[in-house]
Automatic annotation (TrEMBL):
Record's protein name: Diphosphomevalonate decarboxylase
GO biological process, any: isopentenyl diphosphate biosynthetic process, mevalonate pathway
Key words, A-Z: ATP-binding, Lipid biosynthesis, Lipid metabolism, Lyase, Nucleotide-binding, Steroid biosynthesis, Steroid metabolism, Sterol biosynthesis, Sterol metabolism
Domain Mvd1 C-terminal: 202-293
Domain of life from the UniProt record: Eukaryota
Gene3D superfamilies: 3.30.230.10, GHMP kinase, C-terminal domain
InterPro entries: GHMP_kinase_C_sf (IPR036554), Mev_decarb (IPR005935), Mev_diP_decarb (IPR029765), MVD-like_N (IPR053859), Mvd1_C (IPR041431), Ribosomal_Su5_D2-typ_SF (IPR020568), Ribsml_uS5_D2-typ_fold_subgr (IPR014721)
Known EC number: 4.1.1.33
Residue stretches making up the Diphosphomevalonate decarboxylase-like N-terminal domain: 15-188
Entry GO CC: cytosol
Reaction catalyzed: (R)-5-diphosphomevalonate + ATP = isopentenyl diphosphate + ADP + phosphate + CO2
Length: 300
């Protein structure tokens, strides 16, 4: 007779976030530590989001993951780092109804299956890695009954993709770059929740759903190696802008908020052009949109 088996599953949903003061450049590639603080706004989960189901069962013989219905490899360092960090924080789980009891030490031997869906284009510049890794880490933490709060979980999601640390919170979120070499103080904090500025409407105009030619990871590595503008931006420009942006958000000052967001986005694209070889993320449609916004009365 077959041995009695079981499956424990958790499903989570996490929205993507859009940076208004951008993260571009790492000081540590493995731990994913940035060269500057960044601030983002988390979108409404009803729109752009990732849904991830994680499952554990004694009948699984290896860790496996499916992204948008296709199996992907979990052998990459980023997935391995997240899985290792969460497993190290796993606690005992008891589900009396289903007769499941998992001791803390059992988590090392048990394997996981992960199925994740993005309801928006993947790897196209809409921060799928942010929603994806935040959702993975959050769902695993719930599955394994980890006791860490969202800021502590953000430091793990950060090791999957830098921008992911900011998707663990709603509203406006700051990723504090931190100073420690081990990355322990590089984490996200919520500045204000989603109710603080609920008349703010964000319109996402998708100008292309194709995969970007240069991934953020590769692009920012090249910028760190070759762009002098990036050094100036990280040291001189962003620290001042972060303070001004925090003030604008606190006071719901749309004029300052829009001016700072546009200036920061333009400087990010300028750093891309200052990179060798240059990186082009904007296309003709994006340029026409910027022209249109500048010529219309946006309160900027
Ligand atoms: N739902 C998900 N779960 C786990 N990993 C994901 C998920 N979605 C995307 N990823 C990972 O993120 C990678 C895409 O990241 P990348 O930074 O290139 O694009 P992006 O995040 O969509 O765009 P950008 O960073 O410019 O906003 C994918 O190749 C995959 O490895
Ligand atoms: C332009 C950005 O969206 C870049 C995001 O880069 P990623 O977080 O995707 O990069 P990795 O840390 O290498 O995974 C700006 C931002 O979100 O702050």
């Amino acid at each position: 007779m077959a041995e009695k088996t079981w499956v424990r599953m958790v499903t989570a949903q996490t929205p993507t976030n859009i940076a208004v003061i951008k993260y571009w450049g790492k000081r540590d590639e493995t731990l994913i530590l940035p060269v500057n603080d960044s601030i983002s706004v988390t979108l409404d989960p009803a729109h752009l989001c990732t849904t991830t189901t994680v499952a554990v069962s004694p009948s699984f013989d290896q860790d496996r993951m499916w992204l948008n219905g296709k199996e992907i490899s979990l052998s990459g360092g980023r997935y391995q780092n997240c899985l290792r960090e969460i497993r190290a924080r796993a606690c005992e789980v008891e589900d009396k109804e289903k007769g499941i009891k998992i001791a803390k030490k059992d988590w090392e031997k048990l394997h996981l299956h992960v199925a994740s869906y993005n309801n928006f284009p993947t790897a196209a510049g809409l921060a799928s890695s942010a929603a994806g890794f935040a959702c993975l880490v959050f769902a695993l933490a719930k599955l394994m009954n980890a006791k860490e709060d969202n800021s502590e979980l953000s430091a793990i999601a950060r090791q999957g993709s830098g921008s992911a640390c900011r998707s663990l919170f709603g509203g406006f979120v700051k990723w504090i770059m931190g100073k420690a070499e081990d990355g322990s103080d590089s984490l996200a904090v919520q500045l204000v929740d989603e109710k603080h500025w609920d008349e703010l409407v964000i319109i996402i105009a998708v100008v292309s759903s194709r995969q970007k030619e240069t991934s953020s990871t590769t692009g920012m590595r090249d910028s760190v190696e070759t762009s002098l503008l990036l050094q100036h931006r990280a040291k001189e420009v962003v620290p001042k802008r972060i303070k001004q942006m925090e003030e604008a958000i606190k006071n719901r000052d749309f004029g300052s908020f829009a001016q700072l967001s546009c200036a920061d986005s333009n400087q990010f694209h300028a750093v891309c052009l200052d990179t060798c070889p240059p990186i082009f993320y904007m296309n003709g449609t994006s340029h026409r949109q910027v022209k249109f916004l500048v010529s219309s009365d946006m309160g900027i």
